[in-house]
């Protein structure tokens, strides 16, 4: 661990900046003896709040900035480290107080790692040389003790190593013990973040190497852990451990049959309704059958029972269909089916969403998708790392080649974004976003004679941090001719609020990879405060809409403003401190069980949103700056939906992402690409 003295020059650099401090620019000050951080008691921002040591957690009450005046400031509305009553005697108490320039608020960083009060000459001291959480800090005669020595995270950019040997034990229906081997770090691991499938479950201290987790019976999770240091640097993820807890009790009782099934027809859309089933534990699903084929599934949302309605869209005109519904519980007990209804569609589609036609299948995951000027399609295969040219009229495919230097992440990384040059007819550039062995990056490669001309590759932007999950990846050209890219926070929320980081952002580039002169911060950042955005689309007014994954509460659709802050990690959707001034609220939110939405497209100022966990597509009318008349289509019909793009005939291309979605193994999927006709 580097002593504060070893980075005094870096701290001095901070002192040359404006005196206003913020959590984003502050640094942790860590006791050498305890490994714990200098901390404002209870995260209070009130004058008179005390000072102690506590486990480093990266919060604003542990982020200190040394100013040119020798003050140690904390919080965005700054308070100063202050000696109570201006005392100069050993044992003097410390507090935060409104900065006033007094000598009792001035401090000196010394070459031996001590911090002394300018007025008193006494050392910042952990009372009684204790190392426990909540031990107070005061002033004391300097004695060389390790409880008077401090180190800082200022200038620390080195992430910890990967935690090793992730493993589980004591798996039961509602809990499991998850353990791992310690990571190492140049300044010490402050805590470990435990995830399942990209969703943060809990954080534990850097001295903790196992923890008990609450799990869901019968639900498969992929567990892994990241290490984080006090400066906020995050390791790459550990290996993934797959678990599927058993049910808490054996259940062999089937639900009662759904009753009273009725249906109505509007054009080529059928709407079904039925009465709820009952079960000894709970009904989790209704499966809707069209003839003998499952047309879709309605799923419970936590403790909320599944809905008892279903819309079946995109049917053939003037065609008779029969339907029935069955109920299913969490242990796959299936009810008898409901009554059967027969319905005949109209002569033409008078609905917003009309016929759905399968145009291709693939055994890898179609991710980025774009339409060439001749109406044919290019799409990326995320895990196989190549690009396919598809003729949607015939289903014929041509492999255009493998993109070089792509490396997956055993999660969401790989070959992701794809866009075609606005001047493609003349320059034949393809713009590609992908994960490399060291980062996420944006490149461009020319397409020549239906093959990637690898000799033409140009690397436009590097240094976008990668991790197992939260790699973003969508590319979209705007009406201004600039290239927009969505980037995830690399599983480190601090990145999203750091305007000098490329992560947790919408980026804006010139076509040659340079920074546009009118970007708000003089770098590539167009907007910030994003967790894991994957959807980008422009409306007829040239405004950019964005789709973003939440953690465990809600996903969000945002209308992007130049230089705007969208709040992550302080808020998720409308949860947390989203009402704080300066954070831009989403235009629509979705419970994560109904969302996990990835791609979006705008056609005739209607927004279409493709959702994975929610297994549905939303249709949302853009009215002014609002989203209205929100409707749900394909609820469970095709499974997890990844990408939606405008088709040249005024319809949509739509892709699935049902199998092998989180393992980075090539060619282990069973996916479909559809054309959706719009009314």
Brief descriptors of the model:
679 residues; globular; 52 strands; mainly beta; four-stranded antiparallel sheet; Trefoil (Acidic Fibroblast Growth Factor, subunit A); 4 domains
Give structural notes.
With 679 residues, the protein is mainly beta. It has four domains: 4-152, Trefoil (Acidic Fibroblast Growth Factor, subunit A) (Trefoil); 164-243, Immunoglobulins (Immunoglobulin-like, Sandwich), CATH 2.60.40.10; 259-344, Sandwich (Immunoglobulin-like), CATH 2.60.40; 353-678, Neuraminidase. The protein is built from three helices and 52 strands. The longest helix is centred in the N-terminal third of the chain and has 8 residues, at 8-15.
Q: Name the CATH homologous superfamily of the largest domain.
A: TolB, C-terminal domain
- What is the number of independent domains? 4
Q: Strand count, sense and closure of the main sheet?
A: 4 strands, antiparallel
CATH class of the largest domain: Mainly Beta
Model regions low in confidence, pLDDT < 50 over at least 5 residues: 1-24
SS content category: mainly beta
Shape: globular
Distance between the termini: 64 Å
Strand residues, percent: 35-45%
Q: What integer value in Å does the Rg equal?
A: 28 Å
DSSP E strands, number: 52
Number of helices: 3
Mean pLDDT: 92
CATH architectural label of the largest domain: 6 Propeller
Biggest β-sheet: strands ordered side by side in the sheet: 4-5-6-7
